[in-house]
Amino acid sequence: MMADVLFWSIFALAVGTGMWGAIKQHGHTSATDGGTLSLSASSLADGAVTAAKLASDAVTTAKILDANVTAAKLKTATGVTSSGAGARLDMTLNAKSFAPSITNTASNRPIESQNAADPGNAICRFSVAGSGGGDYTTVRWEYMTSTDDPTVWIAYDPATGEIRAVWASDDPTRNDEPGVKVPGCLSKKFKAADFAALGIGQGDQDAAAAMIAAEGLKTKHLLYRALQLREGDHPAAWLRDNCKIKLANGSLIKNA
């Protein structure tokens, strides 16, 4: 009889203090006299701690072990610039970029500093000397990413609309700086919505939609992702070889 009374007294106390919902069927859960519940890892059922149950400020830098921040946990993306006709390139890469790869189909092109004032930040900027010939320069870089906002910069001849160089990346440059400039050319930024006149097929769009859904990306970049999937790369080289700028309104169109 006394045992029953004691049990129900403890039960009532637990319910009244809100402790009952937190008590598990494991032997590692305890409460102090002040009503604070202490839980060990073994007292939490698998799947009990979900992202939705964590406060936005609950996971702090101090609570993440250094050993748990590995290269595999870093979200990275790549960018590429493709030029032709021996063009000189003045390049600006994404923030937090690693050292780029710079290649040329015909010769070793000198890498130079940009003739500009100190920008006051550590964004990678450099120039690749032109040759005046028909060779192609390709610049590739990897960087840490977060925005899922594919961006294209095109340097084009203002007299003919011919594309001289294309910069393409999964993210924009910091402060919207032109990703690539070519002497004597204009540089203009383009987004996926500007690809509407390029005749990207429905099959390519369907494949991109499936990829976007699987990876949780933004649907507004569908046309960019469609070209990216079809070409197996950022579409810089394809845009350079198959498109031009319509001078009347600055739009991106396919070559006739």
Keyword list:
18% helix, 14 strands, alpha+beta, 256 residues, 4 helices
Percent strand equals: 15-25%
Counting helices, strands and paired strands, the structural category is alpha+beta
Number of domains: 2
Parts with pLDDT < 50 across at least 5 consecutive residues: 11-15, 22-30
| Number of contiguous helices | 4
Quote the average pLDDT. 83
End-to-end gap: 96 Å
Q: Topology as H/E string?
A: HEEEEEEEEEEEEHHHEE
User: Quick one: overall form?
Assistant: globular
Helix content: 10-25%
Describe the structure.
The protein is an alpha+beta fold. The chain has two domains: 2-65, no CATH class; 74-254, no CATH class. The chain has four helices and 14 strands. It has helices spanning 2-16, 202-215, 222-231, 236-242, and strands spanning 30-31, 37-38, 76-83, 89-92, 101-104, 111-112, 125-128, 137-144, 151-156, 163-169, 180-181, 186-190, 243-246, 251-254. The strands form four sheets. It has a six-stranded antiparallel β-sheet with strand order 5-8-3-10-9-12, covered by helices on one side. The chain has a four-stranded antiparallel β-sheet with strand order 6-7-4-11, with no helix packed on it. Strand 1 (30-31) and strand 2 form a beta hairpin. Helix 2 crosses helix 3. Mean pLDDT is 83; it is low at 11-15 and 22-30.
TL;DR of this structure?
By secondary structure, the chain is of the alpha+beta class. It is built from four helices and 14 strands. Strands 5-8-3-10-9-12 form a six-stranded antiparallel sheet, with helices on one face.
